[in-house]
Amino acid sequence: MDRSGGNDDVQAELDSVETELELVELQITELLQKQTELTSRKNALLQRLEEACDTAQPSSSSSSASLKSSRADPVMSKQEMQRYDGADFSWSKEVEQQLKDSFHLSKFRPLQLRAINLSLSGKDLFLVMPTGRGKSLCYQLPAVCSKGFTLVVTPLVSLMEDQIMYLKSIDVSAVMLNASSSKEHAKTVMAGMTDPKTPFKLVYVTPEKIAKSKLLMSRLEKGYNANLLSRIAVDEVHCCSQWGHDFRPDYKLLGILKRQFPKVPLLGLTATATSSVLKDCEKILCVSQPITLTSSFNRTNLYYEVRIKDSDASISDVASLINSRYKDQSGIVYVFSQKDAESVSSELQKRDILAYPYHANMDPDDKSRVHRKWTSNKIRVVVATVAFGMGIDKPDVRFVIHHTISKSIENYYQESGRAGRDDQPADCIIYFGFSDIFRISTMVVMENVGQQKLLQMVDYCQNIDRCRRSLMAVHFDEVWDDEGCNQMCDTCRHAKDYTTVDITQHARQVVQILELAGSMDEKLTPLKLVEAWMGKGPAKRRKMIQTTTLSRLQAEAVIVRLLLQGYLREDFSFTPYTTYFYMKLGRKAPLLKSQTHTLSMKMRTTESGSAGDTSAFETNEKEDDIIFEPVVMDNSCPPQPKQKLFKEQRNLSRKRDLKPGSQTNKWTEEQLTDRHGEEEEDKRGSIMKQHVVEVDVEINIVDNIGVNNGQKTPSHPVKPCSKRKSTTPQRVRRKPRANSEVAAIPSQTSDGAPLANTVPSSPSQASGISETAAEELCELRNYYSKQLRRINYISHEYLGQPAEPGVLACIREPLKSLRLPRRVTIAQTARSLWTRVSSRQKLVHR
Ligand SMILES: Nc1ncnc2c1ncn2[C@H]1C[C@H](O)[C@@H](COP(=O)(O)OP(=O)(O)OP(=O)(O)O)O1
Description:
Oligomer: single chain
Structural class: alpha/beta
Radius of gyration: 34 Å
Low-confidence stretches: 56-73, 607-615, 620-768, 797-806, 814-823
Largest sheet: 7 strands, parallel
Strand content: 5-15%
Bound molecules: 2'-deoxyadenosine 5'-triphosphate
Number of helices: 34
CATH topology of the domain at 83-294: Rossmann fold
Strand order of the largest sheet: 3-4-2-5-6-1-7
Distance between the termini: 32 Å
Mean pLDDT: 74
CATH architecture of the domain at 83-294: 3-Layer(aba) Sandwich
CATH class of the domain at 83-294: Alpha Beta
Shape: elongated
C-alpha cells in the first residue's frame, strides 16, 4: 500500500476542510456585520417613528432643529425644555433688545433662544450646532445681558482676533489674553476681572493660558468670589476629546474651571461632536449631566457633489467651474499641502482667476492680508490648506471646492460648511483622487482613529448607494431620509443614472495579483497594484497575472471598493524619512475563493461615452445601452468617440468569435475538454475569455514540451505575442514560438520519456482561431512554459536528485503553497498536465 500517497490525500482533505472553515468564519463575521448594520437601521427607523409621533402631538415644538434636544437631556422633560423657547423670563426683554440694538439682528435662528435662556438660568450646556449657524451669539448675548464678564476659551488666536474685531465693530467690549499679550495688557485685563465695574463683557483666552498661568487662575478665583465671573464658554469643545478630530492636549486640563468655579454655568460649543465625543468632554470638563442641545446638521442650502479627480485635468476643471458656474463669486479651494496651495493658486491665476494661497507657513501679516482682501471681495478665491479654518465667517461664500479629500467626514463637514452662511444656495464639491487617499493615509497613520476616519471619508466619496447628506448625518448621530435632501446632492439628483455592476471577477483578479506578489515576497503600493492589474510593470509579472480590461478609473474604483469592504487592507512601512503604504489581502479576501460569493457596486451610467467601457462589467441591463463611470463625473464631459469605437469593435469581434462553426468554436470543440458553461461565460466578456484560455493552457504546455518541428500550419498567421506595450522598450521583443525559444524547453519529460513530435506547436496551428485568441494563448503559453522551467529549476535545487520519477514528485513540496487562478494549486495543474501528456502520447502512438 502506498502510505505516503494516503497521507497526502488526508493532508489535502485537511487543507480543504481548513480552508472551508476559514470561509465559514468569514461568512459569520460578514453576517454579524450585517446584523449590526440592520440593528442600527432598525433603531434609526424606530427613532423616526417616535419623532413622527412627537410631531403629531399639538404641544410639540415647531423647531426643525431640535431633533435630539429632548432626547439628549436626561434631567428635563420635553415640556419643561419648550419653556426655554419662550420669552417670559426676567431677562427676556433685555435679550430681545440687545439682539436688535447691539447685534443688529431681527430674530433668532433655531435653538439660539433656547440656548441663551438655559445659559442665563444657570444651566450647564453643550451646544452642537452646524458651523455658521450662530453659536457665538449664544454666549455673546448672555454676556452682554449679565453682570460681570464671560470667560471664553478658544483654541486659536486668529479666532479670538476675529471675534474681538467683530465685537468691537458692534460696540461690545471684549479683550483677549494669549501667549503674545504684553505684560501691561495682561495686567490691565487681570485687574478688570476683579473690578466691580468690569470694563469688558468678554475675556477670550487660549487653553494654554489657563493651563500655564497661575496668575490668571488666581484672578479668576477672585472674580468668581466677587460674583463677577458670570459664565464660561468653551468654544470648539470637541478639542477636549482625543476621539474628536481636533484633539488639543491643553483642553484636557480645562476640568479645573468647573472644579474651581462650580457655580458658574459652562457652555461648550461645537459643530462636530458625536455623542461619544460629548460624553468624553463631559468627563474632561467635570460637568455633570449637562443639557445637550443639538441642532440638525442638515444645511439645506448646500449642494454636495463628488467628482473623480483626474490629476491632469482637475485644475482645468476647477478653473472652468470657477470661471463659468461661479463667475464673479467668492469661494475657497482646499488643498492638501502648502506646495499644492502655491501651485494650484498659480495655475488658477494663469487662468485669469484672482486666487491667492493661504497656509500655516505664511508670514502672519500675509495671512491676514489674504484673509482681509478675500473678506472684502478683493480676492475671489483663497486656495488654502486646513490652516484657513476656524473663524472664517464670510457670509457669501458660494463654493467650497476640495481639490483633495478631507481627512475625515467631520473635517469635511466643517470645511465645506464655510459655504452659504447667508442661507443662500452654495456648492460643496470634492475632487476624489485615488492617489490622494494614500497621501493622506500616510499622514494620519499615527492618529488614534485617523485611518478609520479617512476610510469613512473615502466611503462618502465612493458610495453612491445613499444620499450624501444622509451619509454625513450618520456621523453626527442623525438620520435624514433621502427626501429631506431635496435633490441637493449629486447622488439624489442623478439617482436614475446609476446601475449595479458585478465586480466579483475583477475582485478575484486583484486578489490573485496580491497573492502572487505575496508568494514572491513582493509588496505592492496601491499605484503599483493598479498598474500591475492594467498590464503595466515588469514583463515578468505581466505574464503571470490576468490583466484587466477596465479603464484606469474603473480599476481604481474597484480597488477602493475592495479596500472599503475589507477584501483588501492597508499595510504601512516606516523609514526615517517617509511612510510607505502597501496593499495587502484583507480578512474577507478568502471569501472570493468561493464560487457562490459575489460582489457588486453601484456605478454611474451615461448616455454617451465617457470614462469607461462597460463591457467588462456585468449588469442586468442591455450592455449596448450603457457606459459606466466609476463614481461621479462632470455632466459636461464630452463624449469620447474613440472608446465607443473600441467598444463596437470588440462587440463585433466577440459576436464573430461566438458564431456557430466559427474557427474558435471549431478549435474549442476539437481540443478543449473543460468548456463547461463556456457559452454563458463568453457573454460575460473578456474576463471570461481569459478563463477559457486558462483552461487551454494545460494543452499548451504539452505543446511547448512537445514542439520542435511545427509540421502543421496555422489557418491564421500567428502574430507576435506583443498584445501590450512593453514597459521596457529597450528590450528586443521576442519572436513568437521560434524554434530557438522552443529549444530551451525540455523535449522530454523529467522521467526521461520522449514527448510526442506530432503534437501541434501552437493552438493556432492545431486549428484556426481568432488572432486575438491566438495572441492570448501565445502569451499564456510563454507564461506557463516559463513556469515549467522554474518548476524544473526549483525541483532540482530543492531535491538535488528527484526522489521519485515524474514532474509531480519534484514539485510537490516546494510548490505546495503556490496557487494558480481559480483555486488550482500548481501540484494539481502539474498532475492534470501529466495525465494529459500521457493520454496525448497514447493517442499519438496508437
Ligand atoms: N439670528 C441670526 N440671524 C442672522 N444672522 C445670524 C444670527 N445669528 C448669527 N448670525 C450670523 C452671524 C455670523 O455672521 C454668522 C455665523 O455665526 P457664528 O456665531 O460665527 O457661527 P458659528 O460659531 O456657529 O460657526 P463656526 O462653527 O464656524 O464658528 O451667522
